What we know:
Layout: E1 5-15, E2 20-31, E3 36-40, H1 47-54, E4 62-71, E5 74-75, H2 81-88, E6 93-96, H3 100-103, H4 110-122, H5 126-139, H6 145-149, H7 158-170, E7 176-180, H8 188-205, E8 208-213, H9 216-222, E9 225-230, E10 233-239, H10 240-245, H11 250-257, H12 296-300, E11 306-307, E12 313-314
Parallel strand pairs: 3-8, 3-9, 6-7, 7-8
Antiparallel strand pairs: 1-2, 1-4, 4-5, 9-10, 10-12, 11-12
Helix pairs in contact: 4-5, 4-7, 5-7, 7-8
Amino acid sequence: MERLLEVKELQTYFFLRNDIAKAVDGVSFWMTPGEMVGLVGESGSGKSVTVLSVLRLIQPPGRIVSGEVIFQGRDLLRLPEAEINRTIRGQAISMVFQNPSSCLNPVLKVGTQISRVYSVHKKSSAGEARDRALEFLRLVQIPDPGRVMERYPHQLSGGMSQRVMIAMALICEPALVIADEPTTGLDVTVQGQILDLMRDLRHKTQAAQLLITHDLGVVAETCDRVLIMYCGKIVEVGEVGEIYSEPLHPYTDALLRSVPDVRKDFRTTTIPGSVPDPRDPPSGCRFHPRCKHCMDVCRLEEPLLISCQNGRQVACHLLEGDSTRQNQPISSQGEERGRDRTF
């Protein structure tokens, strides 16, 4: 199958005064055209740094150390900065940031900001850019878009601001839209509206979407595949339905158990400890200090991301070498867990 984006062994480090923080340490994944993929993990797992690296938006003291980011056949890490600005950012790949109030210019009207994105990339006239902005404000279901065009960001609600950001991200019809926790800070009703909107826009525009979130319920409702990330590494990859019903990595299983279950009086199980400091990650498997399945080999050797059935991938010693355990879900190796969770 054709691959729109392929990230290979990406490493992004932050060079501090006396330490090196390995925020992204050998991440590999791929996406196909029109696909919606979720990137999931706790805060500090390296999700945002990964997507910022794809667009080469890492600022000092951060630096992309090595790897490849192949987009539509070109390695973005090898392109000149001028070429990235001209043909990639905002045009071929766009990004919806998690806090629209900090991304919109407070002294420019909404219409001016959206129109400018189109006119800069498409070299259009002011009138054409304005018409295009109105069209995309209608597309993201903003009522009375002409009136909204004349407003300043502080005059919009959080949900309305996020719709404006989505319109701005889509106006040049990119092949890939990256959404970094786009519902952060919004109330539950508005969150649902924004997620429904993104799902609908995916079918209308055929743009692939990479959704960064720590909310497993959001991924269950919107995504085709999910990438589970922990401490700078991808630990499990697979179709959403398969991963949610039969997690193969203990971290994935722990994340799912931490979601309130409506069938069990909203009871949850917390994950002990916290994500390790990227300046001093544990030896071996980085999840082993928090894993109830930890073995001696987990403390000594880092597991490789291996392929399993149906295209799934997992990095766990539980699935290495022992044919009786190969490709079995964590639930079949220990405590039984409920299937088909309701989110």
